[in-house]
Design goal:
The protein is α+β, with helices and mostly antiparallel strands. The chain contains 3 helices and 6 strands, in the order ααβαβββββ.
Length: 142
């Protein structure tokens, strides 16, 4: 049986064809529904949190610098974070800013960052910590 026969209803009882077609469509749609995941279900997404006191010493220092408005150690600190990985809650571009958390013993920026969101950089709505260069984030809670 080919698609033309199905469309024209020449392959048997019309109602049976509609039922079969509906079943196939439901199965295909069900596959997409099962595969769809919310951001909280995605690996590395923001589902965990870290207490402010649980941050490394350098992270707490960066949080204090954020509240003071600087000065920051790296030129990139305070610049817009694009959230390309989409692991943080969706917001308009410019909402998130990133800051480097220095890693002792490294001569470069390393992988640790704090990303804060909000319209007022000195008083962010929320801040997130990553120690694996944006592969995962944890909400910083006080």
């Amino acid at each position: 049986m080919d698609l033309k026969q199905i469309r024209t209803g020449r392959w048997g009882a019309g109602r049976l064809g509609s039922v079969v077609l509906a079943g196939v469509l439901a199965a295909v749609a069900g596959t997409f529904v099962v595969q769809a995941r919310t951001p909280q279900d995605l690996p590395g997404s923001v589902v965990a949190s870290v207490a402010y006191a649980g941050l490394p010493v350098q992270g707490r220092e960066v949080m204090a610098q954020i509240q003071r408005g600087g000065p920051f150690r790296y030129e990139k600190d305070g610049t817009v974070f694009g959230n390309r990985e989409r692991l943080l809650p969706g917001q308009q571009r410019g909402y998130y800013r990133e800051y480097t958390v220095p890693t002792p013993g490294l001569s470069h920026r390393g992988a640790r960052r704090i990303v804060c969101g909000g319209q007022r950089p000195r008083a962010p709505d929320a801040c997130y910590y990553t120690e694996d260069h944006y592969s995962s984030f944890r909400l910083i809670v006080r």
